[in-house]
Amino acid sequence: MNRFIDFFLKEQQLRWKVYLASCCIAFGYGFVNLYAFHRIEERVSLETVVLLFALVAVFVAVYVAKGTVFFGETEKPMRAIRLGWKLAVAGTAALALLTSTYLIGISRIQAAIVDFRLKSFAAFLDTVQAANLSDQQLRDRYKKIQSVVEVSSANQIPVDPALLQMTQTAISSSLKKRSPSEQTKQLGWTTSIELESLAYTRKVQTGAIIPVPARQIANTGGYLINSPVSIDNGSIYVQGEHSWFALGPGGGQFVLNQSTVVFDKIDFLGFFSEPAIKLVGDRSNALVRDSIMQNLVQPLDRITWIDVSFANSRPLYAEGAPLRLRNVSFKDCDLSHLSFPWVFGPVSSELVKRIREANGQPITFTYEPVSK
Amino acid sequence: MSTGEVSQAFLHSAGTIDGLWLVIAVGVICLDSTGKLLAITISGWREVLGEKS
User: Fold this and answer.
1) CB contact under 8 A, B41 and A31
2) Which domain does A245 fall in, by range?
3) Each residue of A180-196: pLDDT tens digit?
4) Per-residue model confidence as pLDDT tens digits over B1-53
5) From its phi and psi, is residue A307 left (phi > 0), alpha (psi between -120 and 50) or beta?
6) B29 in A contact zone (CB under 8 Å)
7) Contacts of A41 in chain B (CB under 8 A)
8) Contact flag A52-B27 (C-beta cutoff 8 Å)
9) Which chain A residues are Cβ-neighbours of B36 within 8 angstroms?
10) A100 with A129, same domain?
11) pTM of the model
12) CA nearest B45 in A: which residue?
């Protein structure tokens, strides 16, 4: 046991020799397998790591048994290393942490951290202290939430969807309770959209929402819809793999009557006739994510658009209505009818300006009317 | 191909070799840290228990 301790704590030169030899052998194995046998990279990488671990383990075992590893080396006299009890406790704690991390799973630990952060953000935004935050401080809070959401989304951290919704509600109410600057409003609503989007993703992943495949809606020889598809008092999640719905000139459209519908990776192809998505009733909501909207006349208001590309379309907007655009691009679109009723108000004017400035690149723009 | 340009195949090979070295380096760091941690813990506890007995 003394030699094992010596190997890792004292024999620095020998240790590096062992690592170098093991690395060279492992690299040689990986290189030959990749370029001589043309094997799959992932498989070879795994085998290389296993070989590396095995080689180091063998070298350590030889050292523990014989006192030397390589030929020509003489066994050195053993000297006792004295470490305090504090290091022993710290080492045990670290080992326990490593073992528990392995057993629990890194993603679950990450999720617990993210959940804790979101919970504290949401709880803070509801406090009296938060009401006295300056505009800059509020913006910093939103930025932190946004970065947590972006990291969780990119790394597929299994965050609790209920907490995402709770944070979204906290942001919405914090924005409605005060009159922040336009910049803060934009950031707040954008963060809210991202929370909503991730909450939907997590609900699908956890099975809380069962997605409806595109072919279940249009199962008659493809995805051509030539008459209105009405969704009444329901909540559905339509998921595709960039499946397209061709909306025929006979009135093909989705009519959402007091319903909430998410269209995920669904592309719409129209004939400049009816809007692809029509909301009826105050309680109707729609979220369109990762989609291409082509040849459409489509009202933008009251629908949340995330990573959507409008091409050769005629977007419309009812001045003063909620507008939620996150990474939405407009290419070759007719903006002359954007404002309804044909008078450009401040929101539609700003929207047109942003779209023109972006020149086909994605824009993020939100507007939420102040409730009276 | 003009001067200074490299082929896609060369870039792919370089990326693969880089990846292999990265995997090995991460493996060595993990091994070394775990070994040291184990050595410190064992040595520390032996010392504590040895002193008590």
Assistant:
1) no
2) 212-367
3) 888 888 888 889 988 99
4) 555 677 888 888 888 888 889 989 998 998 888 888 888 888 888 877 775 54
5) left
6) no
7) 16, 19
8) yes
9) 8-9
10) no
11) 0.63
12) A88
Residues 6+ apart with CB under 8 A from A283: A258, A259
Tell me which chain B residue has its CA closest to the CA of residue A28: B20
Q: Are residues A114 and A165 in the same domain?
A: yes
Q: Compute φ and ψ for A160, nearest 5 degrees.
A: -75, 120
* Inter-chain Cβ pairs, chain A and chain B, closer than 8 A: 97
Given A23, A45, A81, which is nearest B43 (Cβ)?
A81
Quote the CA–CA distance of A155 and A229 in Å, as a whole number. 36
> What is the rounded (10 degree) CA torsion for A326, A332, A338, A343?
130
Q: Do residues A165 and A199 lie in contact, with contact meaning Cβ atoms separated by under 8 Å?
A: yes
d(CA A172, CA A191): 10
A157 plus A187 within the same structural domain: yes
Domain C-terminal end among A75, A104, A133 = A104
Asked if residue A334 and residue A247 are part of one domain, the reply reads: yes
Q: Which residues in chain A have their CB less than 8 angstroms from residue B46's CB?
A: 1
Q: Tell me A56's DSSP state.
A: H
**Which residues make Cβ contacts (< 8 Å) with residue A144, sequence separation at least 6?**
A117, A121
State which amino acid sits at residue A16.
W
Q: How far apart are CA B53 and CA B40, in angstroms?
A: 20
In this structure, what are the phi and psi dihedrals at residue A274, rounded to the nearest 5 degrees? -95, 155
Give dist(CA A228, CA A342) in Å, integer: 26
Nearest to A26 among B24, B41, B42 (CB): B24
A170 and A230 inside one domain: no
